[in-house]
Each structure stands twice: as C-alpha cells, then as structure tokens.
Amino acid sequence: MKLLIRNLARTTTEKELRELFEAYGSVQSCSLVMDKETNSSKGFGFVEMPRSGEAKAAMKNLNGTMLAGHPIRVKKVEIKPEMDGAGGGGGDE
C-alpha cells in the first residue's frame, strides 16, 4: 500500500521518515519529493508498505502526529485507473 505523507518539515530526511514507519512494519520504499532547483524537500513524500494491515496501522497512528514540529498528514494514495486524457465534458444528452 502506498501512503502519501504531507506537511513534513523541509529538514525531515528519508531516513527519519523510514524509521517512523518501520515502527509499524516493513517499508518497501520511502522517498521525499525534492525541488529540482534548490534540491530541498518540498514537504511531502511517499512510503510504500507491502502489508496493508501494517500500512493501515501506520496511517491511523501517525496521521496528525508531530514530526519535527509539524503535524503530519498520512493518507492512502488512490490510484485512478485509465485517467490519462479523460477530462470532464462528456455530453451524454
């Protein structure tokens, strides 16, 4: 299960984020989204946990907790199938 973590301090490292989530189970991957120009964190990232039960426990327990002075937000990444090019405006009538 892939989780989106928002409202991270710009100083939070991938290692810190991984360790936080490893308290709830195995972490398959962990990545921060970086600004290409400044090479600093944009304040959000992703954690992938292979076991959905562990991921749900992490999401439930970590959402709203303080990390480096910021209340982080954790939610499941919703995969939208076949959304490329599908805009609003069908005109069914």
3D structure, described in words:
This protein is an alpha+beta fold. It has one domain (2-74): 2-Layer Sandwich (Alpha-Beta Plaits), CATH 3.30.70.330. The protein is built from two helices and six strands; from the N terminus they run βαββαβββ. A four-stranded antiparallel beta sheet has the order 2-3-1-6, with helices on one face. Strand 2 and strand 3 (41-48) form a beta hairpin. The protein is globular.
What characteristics describe this protein?
2 helices, Alpha-Beta Plaits, two-stranded antiparallel sheet, 29% strand, 93 residues, globular, 6 strands, 4-stranded antiparallel beta sheet, single chain, alpha+beta
Rg from alpha-carbon coordinates: 16 Å
How are strands sequenced across the largest beta sheet?
Answer: 2-3-1-6
Largest sheet: 4 strands, antiparallel
Q: Low-confidence runs (pLDDT<50, min 5 residues)?
A: none
The number of helical runs is 2
How many strand elements? 6
Query: Judging by the overall fold, what is the CATH architecture?
Result: 2-Layer Sandwich
Tell me the domain tally: 1
Shape: globular
CATH topology: Alpha-Beta Plaits
Q: Look at the helices and sheets and give the structural class.
A: alpha+beta
Oligomer: single chain
What's the CATH C level?
Alpha Beta
CATH homology superfamily: RRM (RNA recognition motif) domain
Strand and helix order: EHEEHEEE
Helix content: 10-25%
- For the terminal residues, how far apart are their CA atoms? 39 Å
Bin the strand percentage.
Answer: 25-35%
Task: Give average pLDDT, whole number.
Answer: 90
